[in-house]
Design a protein that fits this description.
253 residues, alpha/beta, Rossmann fold, ten-stranded mixed β-sheet, 7 helices, 10 strands, globular
Length: 253
C-alpha cells in the first residue's frame, strides 16, 4: 500500500499524524501561497488511510473556513462551515464533546476539528459570541482528547488571545512552520520550544520546521507531492460524511 505520510524528514524518514496519539492538537503555520491548506488536507487524509490500513475506527471530520477558499468544493457537506458560519464548526465539536462526556455509552469515534485561519475567525467575532466560542474552543483543546476529539489549526498567524490562553505553546502536540514562517522571531518565540536567542532559518516553499512538543528539537521537513488529488478528495468527502450531528445536543450558556 502507498505510504501517504505527508512530510519527509530532511536526512531520511517520514512523518504523519495518527489519532489517537501523544499529539493531541496540531498546528500548521504558513504565509499566503505556502500550501498550508493542502498540507492540512494531506495530514487528515493520511490519518484516515492509516486507520483504515490498521483496521482501526475510522476518524470523522468537521471543518471551519472563514475565508471560503480551500473547502468550497465540499460546501454541500453539513460538516463544512464556511464564511460567517465558520464558528459553528466549533459549536458542533463542543456539543459532541459534551454529549460524549454525559453519555459514556456513546461510541467515541475519533473526530477531527479542522479550523482554517483561526486568527481571522476570532477577529470576525465580537462580544458575548466571541467569548462563548473561545471558551468552547479552549475546552475542546484542553479536554477533547479524553473524548477522542482532536484539533488541527491552519493559520498565517497565531496569538494567545485567539485561544484565550497566555501560554500558547502548551496547547499543541506538534507544530509545522512552512517556508519562512518559523524564522519570524515572534512565531519562533511563542510557538516553537527553542532556546533563548535560537533562530530557525527561513526555508523555501514546500519545506518547513516541524517540532513535537515532547522535548525534541525542531527538524527540517519537506512536504511531499500529492500523488492522487482525486483520491485525497474522495477520502476527505468520506470523512465529512462519517459524522452525523444528533438532533439534540448540549450547549454552553
Amino acid at each position: 500500500m502507498v505510504d501517504t505520510r505527508p512530510l519527509l524528514k530532511v536526512g531520511g524518514g517520514k512523518l504523519g499524524w495518527e489519532v489517537p496519539s501523544s499529539i493531541i492538537n496540531y498546528l500548521i503555520l504558513g504565509n499566503v501561497g505556502s500550501g498550508k491548506s493542502v498540507v492540512a488536507k494531506m495530514v487528515v487524509t493520511d490519518i484516515f488511510i492509516t486507520a483504515h490500513r490498521k483496521k482501526q475506527t475510522l476518524p470523522m471530520l468537521v471543518v471551519s473556513e472563514i475565508k471560503q477558499e480551500d473547502w468550497l468544493e465540499f460546501e454541500d457537506s453539513s460538516n463544512v462551515f464556511l464564511g460567517w458560519k465558520a464558528h459553528k464548526a466549533i459549536e458542533v465539536a463542543y456539543n459532541e464533546m459534551i454529549r460524549r462526556q454525559e453519555d459514556r455509552t456513546i461510541e467515541r469515534n475519533p473526530l477531527i476539528l479542522l479550523i482554517e485561519e483561526v486568527t481571522v475567525l476570532m477577529s470576525s467575532l465580537e462580544g458575548k459570541r466571541k467569548s462563548k466560542i473561545q471558551k468552547m474552543l479552549k475546552s475542546i483543546i484542553l479536554s477533547g482528547r479524553s473524548r477522542s476529539i482532536f484539533c488541527l489549526f491552519v493559520s498565517q498567524d497565531m496569538y494567545s488571545s485567539d485561544l484565550g490562553d497566555s501560554n500558547l505553546r502548551n496547547q499543541f502536540g506538534a507544530v509545522l512552520g512552512l517556508g519562512n514562517m518559523a524564522s519570524r522571531s515572534a512565531v519562533a518565540a511563542n510557538i516553537f520550544d527553542i532556546k533563548s536567542g535560537q533562530k530557525l532559518e527561513a526555508l523555501p516553499n514546500r519545506y518547513g520546521w516541524y517540532q513535537e512538543m515532547n522535548g525534541s528539537q525542531p527538524i527540517k521537513v519537506q512536504v511531499r507531492n500529492v500523488r492522487n488529488v482525486s483520491r485525497m478528495h474522495k477520502v476527505l468527502k468520506k470523512m465529512l460524511e462519517q459524522y452525523q450531528s444528533p438532533n439534540e445536543s448540549a450547549s454552553e450558556g
